[in-house]
Design brief:
The protein folds into two domains: 44 residues, no CATH class; 57 residues. It is 54% helix and 0% strand. It is built from six helices and no strands.
Length: 111
Amino acid sequence: MVATAPYARLGLLAPTNRQGSAVRPEAAWSSKTCLATISPRVYRAAMNLRKTSLERAFDLAESGKCSDLSSLRASLKREGYSDFQITGGQLLGQLRSKIKAAKESGRARGE
């Protein structure tokens, strides 16, 4: 049985095969699976699960992997995200504070 709760929270349909049976997402995207055999509902659900550039920017800032905004932008580009939304004083200030907090928590943990 496949848990459908994560999909329902996102407003998506749970992945199914062509016969309508529920499938595990990792089973739907195995290396042996051809896109032509995947149900359109599974394909749309998988496409919607990728984070936006803005969400990924906040993840990177909170992770402590980036030391400043330029390294955050470089990381986004390296991962295939666009950085055109990463603008504006309020947003940049929030990202800087997240980066600073991640650095301080890393020092507190002794990293």
